[in-house]
Design goal:
heterodimer, A: 109 residues, mainly alpha, Cytochrome Bc1 Complex, Chain D, domain 2, globular, B: 429 residues, alpha/beta, FAD/NAD(P)-binding domain, 2 domains, five-stranded parallel beta sheet, four-stranded parallel beta sheet, 32% helix, 28% strand
């Protein structure tokens, strides 16, 4: 790579960085996205932001109503139908399940 | 300023962001450290186990590049306690349970310092390392795991080497594996379980099963005698009762409510509340307390020398700015790797909010999943969920929040490895 090209790269990186700095200066720190901390209970098995890479179901980008309804259905199951996800569906209010489902639906798979 | 300096000073933020975006694109799944959160702070993390590694990673993912994170760890790699019972029956190697820190450093820009934290100056907001280095912090997270109390008779290193606990995966795990392999047919393996709370509630029962399963096949006629200081099986009572009474019937001999007075490593004799016992192998799991850095710093202020914390932030109740997560903290939650990972996320989220001048999340929920091998082909699982209860200011088990697997199965055994791999990815990758 020529020195000139390196210089151009450095300049464009600088432009980006300046843009980032000015964006930062204007940004007031806002609260974390709703549902993120609750949804992080899913990440141990379903990957960061629901982007599973090692075998469990991918949740990122799924429809919020699908995730929500599925979790609610799981909560109804009893006896030998109780798998580990049925067990995990207990412990969240409907409002919390909605927050989790909405957060995961907004993630890029 | 020369051209290189210009690049270094003004271009770094963007180029680091681009690099981590590229890394993200390359791996597909893992997140990147944002540069524009407007949040700034210096966080030091002591201990690179399940809790420490996870909090370091999530502080960067959620706090952004303005939150500098220094992780202090004495070992080159973490050796997972989870699945370490499978080292005893030869199904896993210790090496396969090791997780280094290079990914945390390269992907998330965490500064990893190999060293030993010697003292916490929570008034001066700095950590002193054994090599004399001083690390200043705005927020400190301490995640040192557990320290062992000494069982009378096992005061010397030689006695401890002969009667290993193997409750921190590593050299003692190998010692115990070799001792089991050297047992004669018709031999006796005695395990002692301390009164709660101890690390990994189902762990001792799981180990009894794995050892019994191995002895049954390779050292027929041998016995596994379990002496439990607790009044009954603490975790998964249904599955472990079934495992003891049916699956490993005639091999496991379980005795609840037994106190260990002393152990003589020379004669391999246990002096207990049910009399004296001799064994070929004694696996004595001592009672435990918070990590030494916490007892030394006066932060282990709860009964049993655990560290009392506010579970909305995991901040110490005696040292503002110091957060304690994982097995060392005194909470209502089990001392186990999966829940330590979630405590770490609550702590990371709280620290990021506090650095931003916001309040912590008022309603955190934690969950725990744990698979336990019962034989070399089958496993069970335990799952629990805790929610913050404002009335008691504790994490309370929710209604229907404690469930054990409806059966012990091969499917569970297969799923156990998926769970392990994803959990370790969420913590170390």
């Amino acid at each position: 790579m020529s020195k000139t090209r390196l210089w151009v790269r450095a300049l464009s990186a600088t432009a980006l960085s300046l843009a980032a700095v000015s964006a930062q200066a204007q940004t007031t720190v806002s609260a974390p996205p709703a549902g993120r901390l609750l949804a992080s209970n899913c990440f141990q098995c379903h990957g960061y932001n629901g982007r599973s890479s090692k075998g469990f179901e991918i949740l990122a980008g799924e429809s919020a109503s699908e995730i929500y309804n599925e979790l609610r259905e799981m909560r109804q199951k009893t006896g030998s139908d109780v798998g580990i996800m049925e067990a995990h569906s207990h412990g969240y209010t409907d409002a919390q399940l909605k927050l989790i489902a909405t957060y995961l639906s907004k993630q890029t798979p | 300023m020369n051209r290189r300096d210009f690049f270094r000073f003004t271009g770094f933020g963007a180029s680091a962001a681009l690099l981590s975006r590229l890394a993200d694109a390359a791996t597909g799944q893992l997140g990147f450290v944002p540069t524009n959160t407007g949040i700034k702070g210096r966080v030091v993390v002591i201990g690179g186990g399940m809790a420490g590694a996870t909090v370091a990673k999530y502080l960067r993912l959620w706090g952004g590049s303005g939150v500098t994170v220094t992780l202090v760890e004495r070992d080159a790699a973490y050796t997972s306690n989870i699945l370490s019972n499978l080292v005893l029956n030869g199904q896993r190697t210790l090496t396969s349970l090791q997780f280094g820190y290079s990914t945390l450093a390269s992907r998330y820009g965490i500064k990893v310092v190999r060293g030993e934290a010697k003292a916490i100056d929570h008034v001066g907001h700095k950590v002193l390392l054994a090599d004399g280095t001083s690390l200043p912090y705005d927020r400190l997270v301490v995640a040192p795991g557990i320290e062992f109390n000494v069982i009378p008779g096992l005061e010397t290193a030689a006695a401890q080497a002969k009667v290993p606990h193997a409750w921190k995966a590593g050299a003692q795990t190998t010692t115990l594996k070799n001792q089991i392999a050297a047992m004669p047919s018709g031999g006796t393996f005695v395990m002692t379980i301390p009164a709660k709370p101890y690390r990994c509630p189902p762990g001792p029962y799981e180990r009894a099963c794995v050892v019994a399963d191995w002895l049954k096949r390779y050292r027929p006629g041998s016995k596994v005698i379990v002496l439990d200081a607790n009044s009954g099986i603490l975790a998964e009572p249904e599955n472990f009762s079934h495992a003891f009474d049916v699956i490993h019937q005639g091999v496991i001999d379980y005795h609840p409510g037994v106190t260990i007075n002393s152990i003589n490593a020379s004669t391999m004799t246990l002096n207990t509340s049910m009399g004296a016992l001799r064994a070929n192998v004694i696996n004595a799991i001592p009672s435990q307390r918070a990590g030494s850095i916490l007892t030394a710093s006066g932060l282990a202020n709860a009964p049993g020398q655990w560290a009392d914390v506010n579970v909305l932030t995991y901040q110490s109740t005696v040292a503002p700015g110091v957060h304690i997560i994982g097995d060392s903290s005194a909470t209502t939650q089990p001392k186990a790797g999966h829940i330590a990972n979630q405590e770490a996320k609550i702590c990371a989220d709280a620290i990021v909010r506090l650095l931003a001048g916001l309040s912590p999340d008022p309603a955190p929920v934690t969950n725990s999943a744990c698979y336990s091998p019962i034989t070399s082909q089958t496993a069970s699982w335990l799952s629990s969920r805790f929610a913050y209860d404002p009335a008691t200011a504790k994490m309370a088990l929710v209604a229907g929040g404690l469930v054990e697997a409806p059966s012990i199965s091969k499917d569970n055994y297969e799923e156990m490895f998926k769970w392990f791999n994803t959990l370790m990815e969420d913590s170390f990758a």
